[in-house]
Design goal:
The chain contains 27 helices and 29 strands. By secondary structure, it is of the alpha/beta class.
Length: 813
Amino acid sequence: MMDKFNILLIEDNPADARLIDLYLSEAYDDSSYTLTTADSLTVGLEFIASKEFNVILVDLTLPDSFGLDTFKKAFEKAPETPIIVLTGVEDEKVGLNAMKLGAQDFLIKGKVKGKGLRRSINYSIERNKLHKELSEKTKKLEERSIELLKEKVKLSEAQKLAHIGSWEWDIIADIITCSDEFYEIYGLSHQKTDVTYNDLINRIHIEDREFAKKEIEESHKSGKSFNFYHKILNSENEIRIIHARGEVIRDNQGISIMMIGTGQDVTERIQEEEMEKLAVAATKSFNSVLIANRDGKIVWVNEGYTKLSGFSYNEALATGKSLFEIISNEKYSKEFIFEESILKGKPISFERECYSKTNKKYWVITTITPVLDKKGNADRIIAIDSDITLRKQIEEELMKANQIAEHSLKKGNKALDELIKAKRELEESMKVKEQFLANMSHEIRTPMNAIVGFTELLLKTDLKPEQKQYIDAIKTSGANLIVIINDILDFSKLQSGKITFEEISFNLHGLIKSLTDLMQQNANAKHLILISNVGSKVPKFLVGDPTRLNQIFLNLVGNAIKFTEKGEIKIMVDFVSENDEFTELKFSVSDTGIGIPENKLQNIFEGFTQATNDTTRKYGGTGLGLTIVKQLVELQRGTISVDSKVGEGSVFSFVLTFKKSAEGQKEDGEAVKTEHKHENIEGLKVLLVEDNLLNQILAKKVLSFWNWKVDLAENGLIAVEKAKQNEYDVILMDIQLPEMDGYEATRHIRKLPVPKCDTPIIAMTAHAIAGEAEKCRIAGMDDYISKPFDENVLHEKILSIHKRAELHNNNNN
């Protein structure tokens, strides 16, 4: 932290400003900071323009500005200065939104103290400083990375244009690196990063394999380049003809350390076809085509030849030169061409340098194909020249690009190291975010468990009407807060990609009925009619994720009830289509509520969004429900839409495809186990492992209400000792405990002698982030329930797991 820093406080309430000043004097020495106070945004912006501040504290509700607009104006004026937002309790979500726009922190007025204020200021200044340093480093790395990427893209595009792939073989490390185009030519998987010499050799056709190995090995030993053609068998079992070229790189001692080269697919140019048909088609060919007799006398050329060479048809035939003289060069002499192609009756292909009538240089690939008579002797010769001048130019650029890329890569090692470091820092930041969400879940759910639980207990006592009204209000507020917490956590899971979907058989009709029964009480409280209808062609049993489907419906039906004052809500399921494996269904939730303005419909599924500000103030909520619904639908490859009119109501519809269930062919009694409520079993011995005093009292009250004996352990160590000394019917295990956490305690209990090691253990925890239930099962727990817990769910879980344990023991005996 710096020796002395300047603080700007923009606060119109003198009392709140005085409290902040008091907390600052408690948190810091008077000589370590200066405080400037503004009672309006206008005055605050004037101070920002005239003086430099290390941190700004701004109230979002000012005489001349309100809400997020206040922060946006301050942030626009001082984007480099850390800003801490001050909000009221009811504006907490506004503070969160301000952080999304760039605020370093937000503090709730009335709850902030000296230590919290100091921590927020110090954290904001240091975090802002770190962010600036990281931004500068990232900018430099991005600039260097862009240059490298340009070279790589240029190299890749050049290879695609030339239909040529490149490779490098580090002989010492025995590592082969190939370009994308080379992968395509040889039919190798792009994901295969460990290509070996044998991988490439095995792609060569069996007829050419030994020849190719010999050429490469001789080049390796002699240090001379190789240049030959061979056939390969690609991944689709097609025979392709490849022009292979390679160079050897040696060190100062003359030892071969690397080979580099290219492979070009030239199949289309030298395929053995019926050459007479090709000659007829050659009239319209863009390539240059010459036809000569066995002795090489040219008898016909196509328009492609006249355009490429500049010689007219008559000039080409009147030169007196034979085909062999025209196409021969130092490497491919007239004698070689005649012997290797004409006499053997096989096509050959090679590159050659040419000059047009106007002495313009160009390059071609010449394919010589003898047309055989019935006796197998060459009767005519067809020469096809493919213009590769552009490719040659690209190859020259490619060589230069390779040299530049190698030079840049050597110099870029340091930049890459810095990039890796920045990536690690980013990953650490993501871990901090996940840990924050886990802690937030635990710290909020732990007191909420006590609030909701004791509220339920109070409602079971004799209350005056006025008292019951107050308790009902607390219960409703608690339920609303739990919905908000769950929305935030679900949104975080979706953003991090940690949402998973089950593939299990379920009773769709039963799910809709259970959903309707569950939401009926909320509808009755507002005197609304709630009805559901499942189409006659809709299958009863499907395979999918019933929990996620139920979550989607709970959001949509909950919204419908929330935004409807009179009338009815309908839940509809309609058949769309089917095939042998899948069934497509349309689900709808309609209401007669307030409706959504037409200009808001396209944004209604965006995160933290509600139709209007009045909606937020009147009905509350996070604005995440529909975002979660949309993502849950789309992650299951479905679609969702909305149709709405202001004052008339809304219809939310989504379409999903499910696998058909084999259980759909069975009788109802066989398909699904009937859910039922367990009768109470008195006298069960329960070990409650819980360190929070309020949650201890609550759980003991609930468990004692069912006439169960409750023993208490305040931490994991005590729990293990009590499990050693006593026998329990079930253990309720908190996760976050002093001395020893719930996971470790469970592992110790599972190591005890039989039968104590088999005692059923249910996790009862305030952790509710992705993967928590799975972590509990891995640790050895039998079931999982999150806080705040529903006492009916807890009761059913305990009885169900107790009966399973009894059945297991009876079977073993």
